[in-house]
# Entry
Amino acid sequence: MANTENVLAETRSLTRRFGGLIAVSGLSIDIRKGEILGLIGPNGAGKSTTFNLISGFCKPSSGSLFFDGEDMTGKSPVKISRGGLVRTFQHGSLMRSMTVRDNILIGAIGALKGSRRNERPTRVNETAAILGLTPYLDEVAANLPHGIQRLVSIAIAFAPRPRLLCLDEPLTGLNQTEVGTTLEVFARIRRDFDCTILLVEHNMKAVMKICDRIVVLHHGQMLATGTPQEVRENESVVSAYLGKHHGA
Ligand SMILES: Nc1ncnc2c1ncn2[C@@H]1O[C@H](COP(=O)(O)OP(=O)(O)OP(=O)(O)O)[C@@H](O)[C@H]1O
Ligand SMILES: [Mg+2]
# Structure
């Protein structure tokens, strides 16, 4: 465990094999307190597998994971999320047949138990307000536009007030206005709630705009890391990935 005080989470030589395929290979990254860290790379680079590893949904073949100084290697998703690390899923994290209110409530339940149970309705309302979802609270999620459903997924993850929020392609399918609104939400929760964000995204314009630092994955390994400008100017990153993303 590095003794750097400003590191919230770190992976050390994290590796995951699926049979003969190495999806994540010897990955060592630091996630610093208060930053928005982008995790980018081509399809199949290992981004979602990295999310699965750090959130406990997938056990590492080798290597380790620390969160807030605690060794979380091999710990369950429940244990890790109670520690303050919450993630969304690439293909959506909401219950389509339930209302927005009940969806957000699901996110709040684990964090507000026992004597804090009566705080749940307030937490749901506050979370909805932060994400601009108040007008939709009593709507069934499936009836809402895609962009609003994406925000509901983020609201569920943010309801327990995580210290590290891991978002897997939250901007997919959003129009330009919705992307702008969602980026404002990220900036607000980082600023007002001290929430560190790990962001997997293919929308390079958005990533370059909002991230403090970026890690580029390629074939499960770290190809490069640095500021958006450093990454944009890195020739191996351009030839492996960015060359195909004109928004960068
Ligand atoms: N459960 C699994 N079993 C077998 N192979 C898997 C499994 N999960 C992921 N893989 C493989 O691991 C590699 C990395 O996949 P991963 O989903 O992490 O990529 P990604 O960077 O998130 O891609 P995308 O941008 O398309 O979402 C791919 O080759 C994928 O097929
Ligand atoms: Mg993925």
Notes: The chain has two domains: 1-84+162-248, 95-159. Residues 95-159 form one domain. Residues 176-193 form the longest helix (18 residues). Residues 47-48, 90 surround magnesium ion (ligand 2) (CB under 6 Å).
